[in-house]
Design brief:
The protein has one domain. It contains two helices and no strands. It has helices at about 1-30, 35-70. The longest helix has about 35 residues, at about 35-70. It is elongated. It starts with a helix and ends in a 5-residue tail after the last helix.
């Protein structure tokens, strides 16, 4: 569940950017793969940088819980 929560912001932005770029490509009839790839990667990288403090706190919390519960049955 933690992996889903951590990956969700980037995947949602990638999906939204892909939808907008696909619509733009359909309207302009430009069917080049790099036109779709570069903006999606840039949007996902921007979201990853913007969400990095939150993502790191979630990962540290998860790791702490794993080590705390490692010895319990």
């Amino acid at each position: 569940m933690t992996a889903v929560v951590i990956a969700a912001p980037m995947l949602i932005v990638g999906m939204g950017a892909g939808l907008l770029i696909g619509l733009l490509q359909a309207l302009t009839q430009i069917q080049d793969q790099t036109v779709a790839f570069v903006p999606k990667v840039l949007a996902m990288a921007a979201v990853m940088i913007a969400c990095m403090p939150w993502l790191m706190s979630r990962m540290v919390e998860f790791t702490r819980n794993v080590f705390e519960n490692a010895g319990s049955p």
